[in-house]
Design brief:
The protein has about 280 residues and is α+β, with helices and mostly antiparallel strands. The protein has nine helices and 14 strands.
Length: about 280
């Protein structure tokens, strides 16, 4: 769905007055579609969900509290680049995503740092090796390989009040917008599994940007005197990757939840992918 379709959708929903705010709440994102596959048929270095990572020599499988982390995804940026309409990601290279094998890292505490790992290599990818899972990684913490395909899509904010300066929507308009979101872009598509890069997240609980900003700075108490100053940087956070619960890969995050990898916009621009924060939300 492109911006013209978005406008038509708003008009059909009786929200013509809100067309003035679409540029605040509609963000392009990259949709990831996972298809189960025999991993032995995949070339080393291709994009995939689950399976085994294809790592450069010298890169060790990440661990957390003495246990190897679960491998989540491998993203080949050359494949993603045509769909990155805002050109936020590096055009070349590979990203690898890992997560706590026990799935007990929620991103709500400063001590969660280290419960996930994002690795980036922009060059020298000619000697990748498909790694076998460490013997100490439980079988239930390993996921089925799925090939990935990509597409551009427009995502809408679920918290427009946080995005729009001088927010002036009426209660009735807010309810109409929430009804639109409940089936956006259409009922069939809305019910599907949603893996995505960039854009707006499919939030299951509260907005995560303030949480990322505060907890990554060691703050969990809203009464902390540093909160007021640090809160000003909450909107600097950008969704990097969202991984839905996906039965095809054998992934289920808490109660049918999602994993969200967040990054500050400046770190994304500088390709500092080791500076991320992860949040797990569930229904």
């Amino acid at each position: 769905m492109n911006n013209a379709n978005i406008q038509a959708t708003f008009i059909a929903a009786g929200l013509s007055r809100l067309l003035k705010d679409i540029h605040y709440i509609a963000r392009t994102s990259i949709r990831l579609t996972a298809t189960p596959v025999d991993e032995s048929t995949l070339k080393v270095g291709v994009a995939k969900l689950g399976g085994h990572p294809d790592l450069p020599p010298g890169i060790l499988w990440p661990e957390w509290k003495g246990l190897a982390q679960s491998f989540i995804a491998q993203i080949r940026l050359d494949d993603v680049h045509p769909y990155d309409t805002d050109k936020l990601l590096p055009p070349h290279g590979l990203l690898w995503f890992f997560y706590d094998a026990k799935q007990q890292t929620f991103g709500s505490d400063p001590t969660d740092l280290g419960g996930w790992c994002v690795i980036f290599r922009g060059n020298d990818l000619s000697h990748l090796q498909r790694m076998q899972a460490p013997t100490q990684l439980p079988t239930e913490s390993q996921f089925h390989a799925c090939s990935l395909s990509f597409a551009s899509e427009v995502s809408l904010s679920q918290q427009p009040v946080l995005e729009i300066p001088n927010f002036d929507w009426t209660d009735a308009e807010i309810k109409q917008y929430e009804a639109l979101l409940a089936t956006f872009p259409n009922p069939a598509e809305h019910a599907m599994i949603h893996h995505r890069m960039l854009g707006n997240p499919d939030t299951l609980q509260d907005d995560m940007r303030l949480e990322c900003q505060l907890v990554s700075h060691g703050i969990t108490d809203i009464q902390d005197p540093r909160v007021a100053e640090l809160s000003q940087g909450a909107m600097d956070w950008q969704l990097l990757l969202q991984i839905d619960s996906d039965e095809h890969a054998g992934m289920r995050w808490a109660n049918n939840g999602m994993l969200y990898y967040w990054i500050k916009k400046a770190d994304l621009q500088a390709a500092h992918f080791d500076h991320t924060w992860l949040v797990l939300q569930s229904e």
